[in-house]
């Protein structure tokens, strides 16, 4: 095989997503917790391209920010795919390698598929275009790949321009191509828009190359990886494909998923070995779970890091900045945000821990909250090692509970508590002997008196 040529990637991302019925540009809609265009860029980065250019429409600052540090080219008018690639001409000045043309709304392409296209471009026949085709179950709306008897590609015919005979062809165009950078922009400059759409089609490039005596070839890919996302329903299909792969990766890595189809991962979720995940668990971005962790059902995590041996849930919520230590317990309906729960600590019931540290071996009782926000600023609560916080306590930050201290149930703590001290803040309990019996007797007499009164007649 010939030495592989230098590679550049041009990613078309100027679509506004009209069919998505959204103000968000199409390529910014998320898959597994990140914009779909970033999935494609992550795959392209593994090719180590010398240049990556993303073509966007003016006003798409959010797309430009999401694809950084890729270079941006602007397509001010939507005049077709050929015109869009032409917008990358200045960025690819003097480039003579292989230009991969990709689409920001086709994020599931595999690295192996792109490597095969690049290798095919390096073949001794020096093809001007290597087109990625596939055979869908329903080819109706796709352009057809018209091949010669020797298997080379003669032309790509859009469905709207195809003859009845051409529409019988099952091999269709994905839009993805590997093109010879030496002649690409000369070919693009010669395109015409005499077609049903009145646009400059990138799909006319292979025929133009053939007219110059160059050969074109086809490589076939899988329909699932070539899914173009242009509606919410297709976005949901793509999410299902991505999640299936992430679940399988977790299982292959040594985790147990009791009901895999109900567990949802982000693209960057890291799961250790011998982790047990019960049904209906959701992982947002930036979550790391170490070995031997138990995650009970209906828990939700984002921006959280969990050390080995911890137990979480059911119905636990870990928000950004949550750090859960070795063998710690986070129980049902407990929320932790920007909080560090140290080794062996227990926060088991109906509790909010925000902007706080819970020291090693400490216990936080049911219904406790760290009151971390005063309407203007957030403050920190520090609970020492081995401390015990009684149920329904309110810790008003900034406050420090010393090591081994005990806070009585129902207390509102607004001042520091020394180590090993008992802090109780309660109103005095008062007993009024016989009051309840007298109250019941009084209410019973009132009820009897009301029943004995004559009922008013109708019309009186």
Total individual domains: 2
What is the CATH superfamily label of the largest domain? Answer: Spore Coat Polysaccharide Biosynthesis Protein SpsA, Chain A
The biggest beta sheet, please? 20 strands, parallel
Count of individual helical segments: 8
Question: Which overall shape is indicated by the principal axes computed on the Cα atoms?
Answer: elongated
Give unreliable regions as ranges. Answer: none
What is the CA-based Rg, rounded? 33 Å
**Looking at the chains present, what oligomeric state does this protein adopt?**
single chain
| Proportion of residues in β-strands | 25-35%
What is the end-to-end distance?
108 Å
Q: What level of helicity do the residues show? A: 10-25%
CATH class of the largest domain, named Alpha Beta
Mean pLDDT: 95
CATH topology of the largest domain: Spore Coat Polysaccharide Biosynthesis Protein SpsA, Chain A
CATH 2nd-level architecture of the largest domain: Alpha-Beta Complex
Structural class by helix and strand composition? alpha/beta
Description:
The mean pLDDT is 95. The protein has a 20-stranded parallel sheet that branches. A seven-stranded mixed sheet has the order 5-4-1-6-10-7-11. Strands 27-30-33 form a three-stranded parallel sheet, with no helix packed on it. The longest helix has 21 residues, at 232-252. By secondary structure, it is α/β, with parallel strands linked by helices. 19% of the residues lie in helices and 28% in strands. The protein folds into two domains: 7-226, Spore Coat Polysaccharide Biosynthesis Protein SpsA, Chain A; 232-423, UDP N-Acetylglucosamine Acyltransferase, domain 1.
